[in-house]
Amino acid sequence: MNSSQFVLASRPIGLPSSQNFRLEKISLGDLKENEVLLKSWYVSVDPYMRGRMNSVKSYAASFEVDEPIKGAIVAKVIESKSKSVLAGDIVVGMLPWATYAIEKVENLRKIDIQKVPPGYYLGVLGMPGITAYFGMMEICKPQKGDTVVISGAAGAVGIVAGQIAKIHGCRVIGIAGSDEKCKLLKEQFGFDETINYKTSKSIRKEIAALCPESVDAYFDNVGGEITEAVVANLDFHARIALCGQISQYNNSKPALGYSILPHLLTRSVMLQGFIVSNYSERFGEAITHLTKWLNDGKLKYTETIIEGFDKLPEAFIGLFSGKNQGKMLIKTE
Amino acid sequence: MNSSQFVLASRPIGLPSSQNFRLEKISLGDLKENEVLLKSWYVSVDPYMRGRMNSVKSYAASFEVDEPIKGAIVAKVIESKSKSVLAGDIVVGMLPWATYAIEKVENLRKIDIQKVPPGYYLGVLGMPGITAYFGMMEICKPQKGDTVVISGAAGAVGIVAGQIAKIHGCRVIGIAGSDEKCKLLKEQFGFDETINYKTSKSIRKEIAALCPESVDAYFDNVGGEITEAVVANLDFHARIALCGQISQYNNSKPALGYSILPHLLTRSVMLQGFIVSNYSERFGEAITHLTKWLNDGKLKYTETIIEGFDKLPEAFIGLFSGKNQGKMLIKTE
C-alpha cells in the first residue's frame, strides 16, 4: 500500500514556511495482529505543534527532522487485523500526517459520528475542548458575577473557554484579531464584549473601560502585549490559566516585555501553567460535561475546514496569522 | 508631650533619598480612655514600604505626603489609661515613625521579651517570619528531596524561608549580593549552596550546575533578571511563591525583561503572588511553629541593628542596596 506523508524537512526559525515540510511517498508494510490500515479523513493542526518543531525541552517530545509530523487525526479503518476495531469503523488517534497509516488498535479510540460531526473529536470533544474545560474549571474557577477575559478568544480553545464561563454566570470579554471574529464571538457565542487587538489604540484602556470592577480571571492563549494589558487590569486574588503563548511560539529568542510580576504580587494573583495531559485521568468528566452542554444547546462550536491533504503545511502556518475561526482542520477528501 | 516624627516630604521617583523624608517636631495631646503613651524602641524598615510611598493602588494603602510614615514598631508604654496595657509593658503595633506616640490599646499587642529579644517581634516572629512561613508552607509546599531556590536569601524573609525548607528535608540554594552574605547563609543558616548574583557571570548557568535535577520551588523576593534565571531552571510542576520584587520597587516605569510565561507554560508551573495578610486568620499557627523551631535550635536568626531614631530614612534606603543581613532595624536609644 502506497501512502504520502509530510516530514519535518528542517526546524523552523521564526514563523514556519512550506520549506520546513516535505511530502514523501512511502510504502506501508503488511498488517500485523491487532493492527489496522487507516485512511486519514480529518487532520488537526494546533498551535502547540510549533513547540514540537524545536529541539528544546518542552511538555511534548520534539519532532525529529526527516520524520513525519504527528498530530490528532480522525481516520477511517480500511482493513483490520483486530477483533475490536473493524473495517468501516471511524477512529481518532495521534497519527502521522499521512494519507494512509498502519497503527496498533491500542493507540486508537473508536468514535460515533452519528450524533456528532467527526471534526468535533479533534476540537470541542478533543484536546482543545478538554483543555478549555480544565483551564476554566480548575484554574479560572468561574464564579457567578465574575468578569473573565479570554485571549485568542476566537480560536478552538478560546470559544469553548468563553462559553464555559458564560454557562457559569460570568461576564465574558473576548480578545480577537478581526472585527469579523469579534462579531462572531458576540452574536454566535454569546460573549458580552470583545476587543479587536489589531485595531485597538490601547488594549489596556479598553479592558479598563469594559471592566470597571477589574478582571477576576484570565484565560491566556496568546501572551505578549495582550497579556501585559490584561494583567494591568486584574483584581485582587485573580486567577490566570496559562494555556498558550501563540504570540511567542515563533520567537527565536525570548521576547522582551514589561514584567508582569509586580502586578501579580501586589494583587495576590495565582497563575497556573498547564497542559491538558495534567488532567488525563479526568478526561471522561470533561467529555461528559462538554457533550451535555452541546446537546443542551448551551455550547456552540465552529470549524474552519480546508480541503486537501496537501494543504496541511499552509493550514498549520495560517494558525499564526489567525486564519482560523474556531478549530482549524484539514479534510483530506 | 513633645515628639519628633518623620513625614513623607515628597513621593520618591526611583530610589528614595533623604530629601523624601522630613523630621518634624509635634506636640502630643492628652491621653483618652483606653489609650497609652508610647516611646518607640525598635523600628522596622521593610522593602514593602517603598510601594506605600507611591500613589498607585497596591495591597497596602499609600502613605500621604506631609503625613507620618507608619510601620511596625516595638515600643515601651510610658503612661496608660487602659486596664489591659500598663506603664512598663512592651507592645508591638503599626505606629508612626515617631519618638513618642499615643495609640489606642486595641491596635497594640503586648509582647514578652524575657525569652525572645524585642526585635524578633518585628522579624522572625513578626511580619517577615510569618510571610516566610506561609509562602514556603502554603505555596512552595516543600517535599523531602526537593530543590528549593530563595532569592534575597540573606534578607529577613529569605533566611527564614530557606531554613523552613531545610527543616522539611529540602536542598536549598540561596541567592544573595555579597560573598559575606553567602558565607553566612552556608555557615550559620545551613543553606546547601549559594550564588553571589553580583559577581556571577551567568546566574542561569550557575543554577543549572548546582541543580542538575532542576528547581522544584522558588521563593522570590527580588524579581528581575534573577527571577528570569531561576525560571529557566524550573522543573515540571514547580511552584513559585511571589513574595517580593525588590529589584523593581524603585522603577518609575515597569522594567523590560524576558517573558517568563513560555517557561511557566511548558513546565506547568504554578505561581502565586501573596501578602501575609491573606493568611491573617492563621497567624497563630505560624507563630507557634516558628517559636518551636527557634526553641529547638532548628531556626536561627540575625538582625542588622542601626542605632539612632534619626537614622531611619538612611536605614530604609539601605535596604535597596542590601546593606542588611537578616532583619534591618533601628534602635532608638
Give an overview of the whole structure.
The structure is a homodimer of 333-residue chains. With 333 residues, chain A is α/β, with parallel strands linked by helices. Chain A folds into two domains: 2-122 and 302-331, Alpha-Beta Complex (Quinone Oxidoreductase, Chain A, domain 1); 127-277, NAD(P)-binding Rossmann-like Domain (Rossmann fold, 3-Layer(aba) Sandwich), CATH 3.40.50.720. In chain A, 24% of the residues lie in helices and 29% in strands. The first copy, chain A, is built from nine helices and 16 strands. Chain A has helices at 49-52, 127-140, 156-167, 179-187, 203-210, 224-231, 261-266, 283-295, 312-318, and strands at 2-8, 21-27, 35-44, 70-80, 90-96, 100-104, 109-110, 147-151, 171-176, 193-196, 215-220, 234-242, 256-258, 270-273, 303-307, 327-331. In chain A, the strands form three sheets. In chain A, strands 3, 4, 5, 6, 7, 15 and 16 form a seven-stranded mixed β-sheet that branches. Chain A has a six-stranded parallel β-sheet with strand order 10-9-8-11-12-14, sandwiched between helices. In chain A, helix 6 links the parallel strand 11 and strand 12 (234-242). The longest helix of chain A has 14 residues, at 127-140. Chain A is globular. Chain A starts with a strand and ends with a strand. In chain A, 51% of the residues are buried. The mean pLDDT of chain A is 95. The A-B interface holds A 51, 57-59, 220, 223-224, 227, 236, 242-245, 248, 254-262, 264-275, 278 and B 51, 57-59, 220, 223-224, 227, 236, 242-245, 248, 254-262, 264-275, 278. Strand 14 of chain A pairs antiparallel with strand 14 (270-273) of chain B, so a sheet runs across the interface.
